[in-house]
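hey so u asked for the seq, here:
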Amino acid sequence: MRILIWHGWLLEGSGSNVAAAKLAEVLRRAGHEVLLVCQEPNADRFGFVDATGTVDADSVSLPTASGPSHEGRVVLLRPDIGSLLSVFVIDEYEGFEVKRFVDLTDLELASYLDRNVEALRTAAEWWEPEVAFAGHAVPGAVVARRALGQGRYVAKIHGSDLEYAVRLQQRYADLAREGLEGARAVVGGTRDVLDRAMEFVPQIAGRTRPVPPGVDVDRFYPRPRRDALLDVAGKLDADPETARGRPEALDNEVHEAGDDPSALDALAHRYDQSVPDPAAASKLRSLASYDGSLVGYFGKLIPQKGVELLIRAIPEVGRPLRCLIAGFGLYREHLTALVRSLGLTDEVTFTGRLDHRYAPQALAALDVSVVPSVLVEAFGIVAAEAAAAGALPLVARHSGLAEVAGVLEGAVGRPRLFSFDPEPERAVSNVAAGIRRLLDLPRDERRGLRRSVADFVASNWTWDRYVELLLEAAR
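ran it, structure tokens below
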């Protein structure tokens, strides 16, 4: 089958980026011919990509190509959209001027959409797909409707589109209505995110379908802490990119910046957010010899993810522990300053970003993985990845996160074990109580729960199952 995937950004980092990459990879493995239209500049880092090129309003250019190593094939085309890249949450993207959707002028938005539509139309005329998938209600669905026509695509809701654009400005609500009304089907990770989409576009009722994202269970699986951390430390030693990461000396400048937000923001631009810290390997080796309780957070370091709640909860847990924070984002220095102000520099370890080369081992080392997001979430893939790696998840009981927690709690017959009440006034205390509840379980019981949740994810939340459900929705 010839399949087209439109995704507006890169292929790693966020949940939707990873989902786009895995969708293409699994489809290729299943023997399909896939055209992946996205802005990934380093396609050579992805072994499933067979050919790369560009596309604009007039033509497709495919200067680099190789024959497929399997029956299937993936061709990646980067649309020429100019220098402006629109995002939901500010991150750094090399080679682009980055602006949030809500900050675009009407002229900038129109130009961004038009250039994507023209490129996708050209790509589709060249590829002649039988099935098309478009990521996000805005911009993917509306770009697909204008480029491909009504009923010619499946729209994938990811949540950030609704909360960071559609809910905030009427122009995006109008665009979401245009795009979703024209979709053959609308899919999302949970029923919660689909219900939120129907708040804005009631007309899609009857065409929605929950499709949980998957976990790469060949990478995320339980293993002993020491072995896992020494393994990832060795891999980090061999990674030359860590030289661009955050230098430890910056801690002194965080101290000097005090509580000056602008000074802390400036520090976050002094290093490459997309790579691990240079000292990450040595820090993880140190944790490998620690035999006490280890909790952690993996994900973006932005206020909306609630990392501050976890840090503030550490003193309230009431027992010695260490906390591993692996992630990237411009809020890193604010969190570092908070750790210092609370006197937790010995308890909290930052590593910088750990992508899927490193995250599975690091997650396996945790006793508890906390997902304290204060933003409504479509699913919360990191909770599923943690469970697959044998780290007991503790997630905020709201939106799609509540559904994920409920499914895992149901799988082990322990209601409310893996979730906490996110009520703002008591969120910190509730995080602390949730961590304490999990750590206080007898060692054998905790070991059994780790195995049970890992087995559940390996059987139910796989990328093969994700692709199977997406293709069913497209029929």
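Residues 268 and 330 are 5 Å apart (CA to CA). The first strand starts at residue 2 and ends at 6.
lmk if thats what u needed
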